[in-house]
Amino acid sequence: xxxxxxxxINEYLKYKRSFRLSPLTHLKTxxxxxxxxxxxxxxxxDSINVVDEKVVRQYLxxxxxxxxxxxxxxxxxxxxxxKRVLLWNYFEYLCQMQFRADNPVxxxxxxxxxxxxxEFLSLRQAVKLLKFVVKNKKKPHQYQIRGRAYIALILFYxxxxxxxxxxxxKDLDFKQKTMKIRKTHFHDSRTFPLFxxxxxxxxxxxxxxxxxxxxxxxxxxKTSSDCGFMTTRGYLQVLSRKMxxxxxxxxxxxxxxxxxxxxxxxxxxxxxxxxxxxxxxIERRSVIASSRKKAAVETLxxx
Length: 303
Known about the structure:
The protein is mostly helical and about 300 residues long. It has a three-stranded antiparallel β-sheet with strand order 1-2-3, with no helix packed on it. It starts with 8 loop residues before the first helix and ends with a helix. The chain has helices spanning about 10-15, 25-40, 55-65, 75-95, 125-135, 140-155, 160-165, 200-210, 235-245, 250-260, 265-275, 280-285, 290-300, and strands spanning about 170-175, 180, 190-195.
């Protein structure tokens, strides 16, 4: 590092080591400050007191237009926001130690970062998935009937894996057309009506379900199968390769939320369906309200 004479870099790094930060964080701080000092020397700036808001803005703008020297990958908005935070901490230290009178980064607002949008299936893709699961409708395989029932519980009810695999035989009442979901650490207990075609798919799996001592509705058939006792990750990965479509339990659940928001369902209603404790859990997923919003955010992230 080639710091300026009045930059007090060594004192600042010693001050940072007093905090319980990871070695990677200290390394990033050292690298970013080194890049900033190199930029100041390239602009013939020999004093840290001369640096003002305009110089910092020009540095962040130039960093946004350049690429990483190793991977040649264009820097993202997150990288620029991280650079701003590091510079803010550095100049704030100089102000507190009375090495400078002001912090030039204070007046620079935090850049607007694109939100991370969860992946979800469209209506056409969801219908195609349910049809692809059971190809042979005359003599479907046991795993196909089990997989269709599992996928339907996520797409139609928004259940999570730990809720699905806790369902017991006595929780399903096909006469009263009800299904009871037990209380977990993150979700409340609730009772759902069994509506077609989910009731037929669940009843079809109950009829061909292997008879064992376990009272769980979904149980493992073979220890070496793709359908584990508490997960179906392997089964969804097989479907993903065959359909050439990215599938996971998280994507299927995000599909449920997207259908609810596209149908203008109230937040409170969705909260009652999934049984979450707070409304903030639902509001976090409002970013997937429509495919237009997802496309807009993806376009913003590529700028």
